Known about the structure:
mainly alpha; Transferase(Phosphotransferase), domain 1; two-stranded antiparallel sheet; about 10% strand
Amino acid sequence: MPNGSLEKCLYSHNDxxxxxxxxxxxxxxALALExxxxxxxxxxxxxxxxxxxxxxxxxxxxxxxDFGIAKLFGEGKLISQTKTLATIGYxxxxxxxxxxxxxxxxxxxxGVILLExxxxxxxxxxxxDEQMSLKSWVSHSLDEHRIIEVVDTNLLRREExxxxxxxRVSTILSLAIECLIDSPTERINMREVVSRLQKIKxxxxxR
Length: 207
């Protein structure tokens, strides 16, 4: 794709995605997953969702790629077990421990990506260890109402009137945390994610 991957854009010094562009990308990916999980004849689980597998076309529309370990479920089947593991940092707890694959696993991976998009921190960053993960770092900042401490500094520096947008970013991060609930049966699904993100976007004035 002409604009490379989401990973390239997030960590490049030459590219910059503002708050709205990141939200548009998040919605594109959520729509793709909603289709795979709910709108296709058979349920498709990507199994390896991460920023390097999200590609950006000439119009900066995000496309989900690399279906090398994706699983196609027959009618009525919603879960399976496999020895094929997703990428460390993005895989769900049930996938990592038991090899259980379901649409909820993709939701978990999506939640990690959503956090990464607004913090510009990989889940495998050196600052994270057994005591603190990307999830717990952001979750604590939300509880303490101090998201300014975790949001990508590029957004703080370049966005005008960031304080007015702080609540929207907080809402996005809170949605990501809901995607990261440990129990797969308690996580929200991609239809709900799409609906919530589109409501957040509707609150942002067009420039």
